[in-house]
Amino acid sequence: MSRTDSNHDALFDLLAGLCDGTLDEAGRAEMQRRIVEDPDAAALYVEYMHLHASVPQHLNLHVAAPSLPAPSRATPERSAHRKPIMYALAAAVVLIVCGVVMVQLSPAPVSEVTEPAGSPFVSIIDSTGNLFVNNDAGYAGGTFGAATYELKSGTAEFLLAGRVSVNLEGETRLALHDPMNATLSRGVATFECPPEARGFTVKLPDGSHIVDLGTKFQVRVDAAGDASVRVIEGVVNCQGVDQSWNQSMSKGHAVWFRHQAQAIQAHVVDLPDNSSIGRLEVGLARVDRYLDAHVTGAPPMLIGLPAVVPQRGAGSGHPGAGYQFMLTKPARLYLLVHDRGTTALDGWERTSASSSWIVMDRSFTDTIYTRLAQPGVVNIPEHTGVDPQGLHGVPNVCLIAPPSEQASLSAAHSTTASESSAKGDIE
Fold it and tell me: Of 207, 213, 310, 351, which shows the fewest CB atoms inside 10 Å?
């Protein structure tokens, strides 16, 4: 037996386990590794899952459970060596033909299963939450075509026919039009594209496009239609809705699009990989991945602005780390500075406003500074303040707003957890 046949036999073992619900986490990880790294394995995966799903479809059987029933075996237990692939496919074809004959000889069913139109090109590898495909339940192991894929909770992972890997998180709505085009209208989606999928395009609610140039990138769209794009690996090309803005971005860069308003383009550079890029709201991480530190209150006029949240860095015995990002347009910046010791912020104007946050049941406050920034590299200073115990402040969070007149900020008016639905822009 050749090495390729042996590898394919191992993949078929994994696929059979996926379909009968016996595949453990280690097996899932191994299967995903194979289909991502090996184009032949990816093609076999799509063919196997399409064939497996087509048997109940031709028999007018609807599989509602998240996992498919186990395919029939020639023996009660698996052997170390499977029968040749052609035998397995031939047996499946016989089942399909028999099913078609049975359907033609039987009365028409009262109701039929509605599947997305067109040829299947989406294989659902995994789903840990409530996933719907055109309002019907989606399930791991299923294959579908052009449709709207809506995740209500949890996560979901897809593999497209062009070997593009798609991961959804939380409440996300993604329309997949064909193997090379998608539209994200809400939520979080991460796309990993192999070289042969160069040109894969994601459309945003405002009509902007992200075109893959061989990379891994993440797109976020909030309820208002505002979007952010972050490049994890490789390069993408971002195109504004009016084509007046066209920019290539590489690893560590990010850009924001504001729906139905003047767009803010901010390229974030030199940030640690696990820094978060989001929007200011109650519940936003105050320090990235640090003991559940999160914002509990902020001025309403700042709620909804793009926020750069760096990681803690070396710890409280060291200054909060500084960082850089690059602006492609003028912008007004707001800096949330931890009230700990005295921090020198040359070039920044201190306001009377503040925000609050909590970590491990301990409450803290930030003083808010502001400045007008021109296109180019912006340096966010490190936090050098120290309290009487010798503890340094956490890194500064930077908010990005349009370069219009500074809003009137008042420390007496702030958004709290009970008012977290309030949204506003600085105009």
Answer: 207
